[in-house]
Amino acid sequence: MSPLTDKKIASPDNRLEARLAPTNGSVWDLSHASLALRELSFEARIFGWNGVWSSCSRYFAINEWLRIDTAHCPDMQLVIIDVQDGRECVVERVSCGFVEPMYFKDDLVKYNKIEKGMDERAVIQCRVGELAGWRTVPARPTGRGAKG
Fold first, then answer.
1. Chain-centre distance for alpha carbon 139
2. Any long-range contacts for 110-113 (C-beta under 8 Å, 24+ apart)?
3. What is the spatial distance between Cα 4 and Cα 1, in angstroms, rounded to a whole number?
4. Tell me: the pLDDT tens digits for 89-101?
5. Domains in the chain, please, with CATH?
6. Residue 114: exposed, middle, or buried by beta-carbon count in 10 A (0-12, 13-18, 19+)?
7. pTM of the prediction?
8. Residue (of 30, 49, 97) closest to 70 by Cα position
9. Extended beta strands in the chain, E state
10. What is the pLDDT of residues 83-141, one digit of tens each?
11. Are 82 and 59 in contact (CB under 8 A)?
């Protein structure tokens, strides 16, 4: 088996890049990753392996693992990161299920939500401009040479 390598997801304008690095103790291959995005700091948070950019390259959507102590019933949330303004917003929280970004179309983000032990599935869309609860993402301390 070859070693797991970082995954780089370039923005549509190729000016930005989200870098996902596999974390130790991943339950499934490439299921848990750390996120590096510009100078933003996500510290010890654990994200999924797939993220999507908006067509304007301003927003990046990715799922975040809130509880990973069980492989069969995780708690997750979908997060949108406003790279331009250095802030983030939780779009959806799911207990005992999964939430995965699909794509952006204009001001809409579309995502897949699976909850209640995999019994309830839905494809949902919401407008980024209507989201509430934005919070600042702290900057990474200087001296750590991560690109992004």
1. 17
2. 111/61, 111/78
3. 9
4. 999 999 888 899 9
5. 7-133 (2.120.10.30)
6. middle
7. 0.87
8. 97
9. 7-10, 17-22, 33-37, 46-53, 59-67, 75-82, 87-94, 98-105, 108-115, 120-127, 135-136
10. 999 999 999 999 888 899 999 998 999 999 998 766 778 999 999 999 999 999 999 87
11. yes
